[in-house]
Design goal:
This protein has helices spanning 13-25, 27-38, 40-45, 70-79, 97-106, 120-130, 150-158, 180-197, 213-217, 228-237, 265-280; strands at 57-63, 84-90, 110-113, 135-138, 164-168, 209-212, 245-249. It is an alpha/beta fold. The protein is globular, with a radius of gyration of 20 Å.
């Protein structure tokens, strides 16, 4: 971490602005300044910490018919103060999303176009193949999950306390109040997954899953749709204690079906089958 030069109290508005500009440009200086101001313990609680040299976050975003949301989602991902690459995988969108993705491609983001619609799991496999970061996070293309929470999601990995981090919607953060039976299905699938994996997760079906790169390189994924969630959970659990798993509370702004929510009852039954299948065999 670079030393913070001339950390004196500014004398006027111009000096204050210069200090703010310098801290905005340099995350390491910002972390050091806030650590001196608030103390190390408070900063760790707020997910303010130095980023190690060579760290890079790969944000893998499967996209299917998200014209309404994807532009704002990518803007929010870009705003996260972490070294990163953004990988968008279009699953044959038909609503004009591809036109927006071509704009992102022209701006330098990696965009991969699937040859046919296969589902979230297949899109993620494609995205993982293109990821070059030291840490990889799964990000849905809507606005249900907030990229501003990346800093606290990757913190246990950067601090070498974890190899995999799940973001849980059910342990303490705010969430939009929506469907009771979705909540019941999520809790039931998580409980069943825990019974087979001997984990004590609270939210197996969460989108926010973060991995050290070598974790994903060490498993072979097969599910094409939403079976990705129980499959990757089962395959990670089989490799304990080599891989350490953490849960972090996250906020959740769920969508209604009218707003474009795609997962349904069919996917719940598929997840049920995947929990059993991928615990019994690879």
């Amino acid at each position: 971490m670079t030393a913070l030069p001339h950390l004196a109290y500014p004398r006027g508005a111009d000096e204050t602005q210069r200090l703010l500009d310098r801290l905005t440009r340099d995350p390491d200086q910002r972390a050091q300044f806030l650590t001196r101001l608030l103390g190390e313990a408070a900063c760790r609680q707020l997910a303010i910490y130095p980023i190690p040299d060579g760290f890079k976050l790969s944000v893998v975003i499967p996209v299917y018919n998200e014209r309404q949301w994807v532009r704002e989602l990518v803007r929010r991902v870009e705003a996260v103060p972490l070294p990163k690459e953004i990988i968008l995988v279009d699953d044959c969108s038909t609503d004009g999303t591809r036109d927006i993705l071509k704009e992102f491609e022209a701006e330098g983001h990696k965009v991969v176009y699937q040859p046919k619609n296969q589902g979230k799991g297949a899109a993620l496999r494609t995205g993982f193949e293109h990821a070059r970061g030291t840490v990889i996070v799964v990000q849905d293309a809507d606005l249900e999950y907030d990229p501003a929470e990346y800093l606290k999601l990757v913190q246990p990995i950067i601090e070498d306390r974890a190899d995999v981090v799940f973001g849980s919607r059910f342990i303490g953060e705010s969430h939009r109040v929506l469907y009771f039976w979705h909540y019941v299905a999520n809790k039931f699938l998580t409980m069943l997954s825990n019974m087979f994996t001997n984990l004590n997760l609270t939210d197996m079906e969460t989108c926010y899953k973060v991995f050290r790169r070598e974790v994903l390189q060490g498993i072979k994924l097969r599910s094409n749709r939403f079976g990705f969630e129980p499959e990757v959970t089962a395959k990670i659990a089989k490799r304990r204690p080599k891989w350490r798993i953490y849960e972090i509370p996250i906020s959740y702004a769920g969508r209604t079906y009218e707003e474009g929510k795609k997962i349904g009852l069919k996917d719940a039954f598929q997840a049920l089958g995947c929990i059993i299948r991928y615990w019994l065999a690879d």
